[in-house]
Amino acid sequence: MIAGLGSPGEEESSHIVGPVVTSDTQILADYLRADPHRGAGRKLARIMRPGRDGGAAAAAAAATAAAAATATAGPDNSVMFARVRRRPMGQTPNQTVASGKCHIIERIIEPFADELIDTYFRKANACFPLLDEGSFRDQYRRRPSHISSALLASVYAHALTFWSQPRRAAGRHCPDSRFVWNQATDALYSELQLCPGMSTVVAVLLDVGGRPSTSMIGNGVLIGSAVSIAHGLGLHRDPGGWDMSEPEKRIRVQIWWALVVHDRWYSLAYGTPPHIQGKFHDVPRPRADAGGNAVFLALVSLSEVLDAFLVHIYALKSDRRATSEFDPGAALSQWEESLTGDNRWLILQGGDLSIPGASNLRLAYLFVRLLQRRIELDNTRDQGQRADTYTLSDRYTHPRRAAEGIVRLVQALRAPQLNDFWLPTAAFIFTSTIAFLLRVALETEKTASGLVESTSLSLANDLLVALKSHQQNFRWDLGDVCIAQYADVVEELRKATPVANVGQGGTETSVPLIDWQDFGVSGLADVEDLFPNLWDMFDSNH
């Protein structure tokens, strides 16, 4: 098993030493190590520099078996780890809550546990790699009790979505995924409280990446906790020159970037600034491998583009925004030009969506493009451009076309794509897209009949129709929030009738912009009805 991902009975864990005291600790460790009598029985720091002979490093490790692992990324950029107690004083290694919850799940999913593991690696890990498949399978086969209970429970729950969709569509019985998720989340919180480690970070990523996603606050807490643990474990530092196996280096890099991806997209979905700051980590992007991780690499790089957008979106000082040189169009165009091969065709033209993870990647790109157009639109407003009917409609053309791309993609999805890998934040993409389309319809149309016949309102309805079809025919959950929020709203707007703006001849008069009070739209007592509680239709803790 990759170090840090198993052995729940481990008493100690590595924790990074802050840069303020790293050089002091390094000098002290070198001094104590020079004299075995002085260093005997002490938890020394093993100093290793990139380029040293592996045999010498191994000999040094044997001489200081109790030492913590230390690595150096450069002469003035040392990274040092200290050995710390993994669980609170008085707590035993027997994780009764986490292991008990995992056993409950295993009883529920019998005899399909092995099938779920296969499904996870085929559907999820292939698109969003968090685990080394060979190492995990070997440990699962030989000593499953040495795998973190929270991690194993989260793998089962995460895989259940992919496994159960086709079975339910075929009318076959499946375990209650909501109940399974609740057990897995309980196991995760137990490990988070008692003995957090790298396995906890992976379990968090599986949990927040699971579907259906129904707890904004819970997911936000988990992501913040995972970022904190990851920093403590040094996952934010480049392990390239460290004394560890290549698979372990690779999985550390993948876990870090998976965390970055979730942090960025949940920041956008939940309206909260991202936890991870680009200037505080130096982890290189994952490398391409023979396993075909091109989709994951593209999602990682796209999330970096999104980060530039988030910096602009969440900036609070108006003078900083006014003088900002950030150009969203240039940022996205530069990324588009960096694409090559099949990825370029897939992302820009909507090519082969049968590739695992392709539909999610295409949707993510289309939404970043819509976000770019929305930022440009808001910038023109800030610059005080005239808001007459012509210029307003003209300015909305490109953003509306970007939104239309999302609608057409959803309409084109079929069973293989719907049962593929999706980030749960896709649910936010749909609600945000419809909200924007309704905004366009309301701001560009002057009359009730114009509103009813508007292209934007028609696109919003098309998106809802497609999502309802996927929900009914394939039990696809990612449209549930959008349907619950906007189905009635769109239906009422399509039936809007003028009340106040009627001329003496019985015809509608032209008005500069629609006023909600001018329309008799039953069921919409307040414009706030357009924005109900995002998750209030659910009552699960997951």
TrEMBL record:
It comes from the Eukaryota. CDD domains: fungal_TF_MHR (cd12148). SMART domains: Fungal_trans. One of its GO terms (cellular component) is nucleus. One of its GO terms (molecular function) is DNA binding. Keywords: Nucleus. GO terms for biological process: DNA-templated transcription; nitrogen catabolite activation of transcription from RNA polymerase II promoter. The keyword Transmembrane helix does not apply. Pfam families: Fungal_trans. Residues 219-292 form the Xylanolytic transcriptional activator regulatory domain. This is Putative c6 transcription factor. It comes from Diaporthe ampelina.
